[in-house]
Amino acid sequence: MKISKKIGVLVAALAMSALLTVSLVGCGGSGQGSNNDFMEKGDGEHLVCAVTGKLIKIAPAILADQLGYFEEEGCDVEFQTVALADAMASMSVNKLDIDLFGIVPACSYVLQGIPIYVFGGTILDGSEFISTTSFNRDLKTAEDFRGLKIACQREESGQIYLKAYLQDNGLELGKDVEFEYVDNPTTALEGLRSGQCDLFIANNAMGYTYSTSMDDIKVAGAPADVTGDYPCCRQNCSDDAYHNKFQSLVDFEVALIRGYDYYLNNKEDVIKRMVDYSAQTPEYVEAALYGTDSYRNMMDLSPDPHTNEIVDYYKAMLSIGEIEGDEIQPAPVKKKVVVVGGGPGGLMAAKTAAKRGHQVILMEKESELGGILKSESAIPFKYEMYQLTGTYAQDAIKSGVEIRLNCEATKELV
């Protein structure tokens, strides 16, 4: 096995990732000891790994699979297409071993005391600023953002780190700089063109697509230019995989590192392979994975877990209130709150509001809680996720939430 010296160092980094998992789970209140037998070979345990669509940001894993590296390392990997939110829920009940996405969901689950482990990296950085071509402000310091209105999507990792950075450097969020969550990029683009927002924090290569197909849109910079490097998608695993399949996780990582080495040293073939895999154009694949003379890609596909940066990111989420700490602060003014919808998100929001002292009523128009998971409960690997609805409902009721079924939230009723 020939791996460059630079990549070989990352094999040792995997051993240190055990410390990372302890640190993060410790933040949730259930730290556990680390597994140090990382130099042993695994027993070829079956690993189920989630992938989301045909996204090429996991190129090292795709290459490791296509080039036979997993097999050569004795790693039995099965890839399943699973939505990001479903992947975390499945891992929480040990129905899925590995997910290669999602730092924000991982931190959110860890906070709840659910043992989700981060054992490697998928992407470092990865977000960029989109603006109209008339926007002419340099974005290098916190002060450069004063007075701006910024659209973003909740799952975009760059927006979290940027908010924390601006707050730490003296800007008051919501006053000196405003952030607004949008449901989709189309809404953000409309906001840019109408002047409702100044910037849109988008995922890597969206700027390439927009700037090459729209005359009035450009890439205005990147959060990492201001904040420095931050972790984006991570390699996450379940409690069962970490404790019972640890050596196979090491084999998985070694194979993935070999895929990363191939990505670094075989650009032409990698582009061809990723075009075949994703059905994207060669121009897009090159821009997204390597950048071009006129486009700077922001994704660093390093498998390094970036242990300290993950902990910093977790703290950043806490500091801006993106996730609540163990101590939920009472609301200064108690209000009557109506939560519409009895899916997992609605139940969690209702519980949190009730714990802050509000009088909370959750209205669900159907006769049963669960949201979209109800229609998917017949799928074997999703049934346990559906069962989580019962747990969330019990927690909400214990917190004082009044749940009303068969109750559609109309303007008159609310």
Spatial strand arrangement across the major sheet: 2-1-3-10-4
The proportion of residues in beta strands is 5-15%
What percent of residues adopt helix (DSSP H or I)? 40-55%
Ends: how far apart? 65 Å
Classify the secondary structure makeup into a structural class: alpha/beta
Parts with pLDDT < 50 across at least 5 consecutive residues? 1-39
Mean pLDDT: 84
Query: Mind summarizing the main beta sheet?
Result: 5 strands, mixed
Number of helices: 16
Q: Write the element-wise H/E pattern from the N-terminal end onward.
A: HEHHEHEHEEEHEHEHEHEHHHHHEHEHE
- General form: globular
What's the Cα radius of gyration? 22 Å
Number of strands: 13
Brief write-up:
The protein is an alpha/beta fold.
Would you write up a description of this structure?
The chain is of the alpha/beta class. It is 43% helix and 14% strand. The chain has 16 helices and 13 strands. Strand 12, helix 16 and strand 13 form a beta-alpha-beta unit. Helix 1 runs parallel beside helix 14 and helix 15 runs parallel beside helix 16. The longest helix has 23 residues. The radius of gyration is 22 Å and the shape is globular.
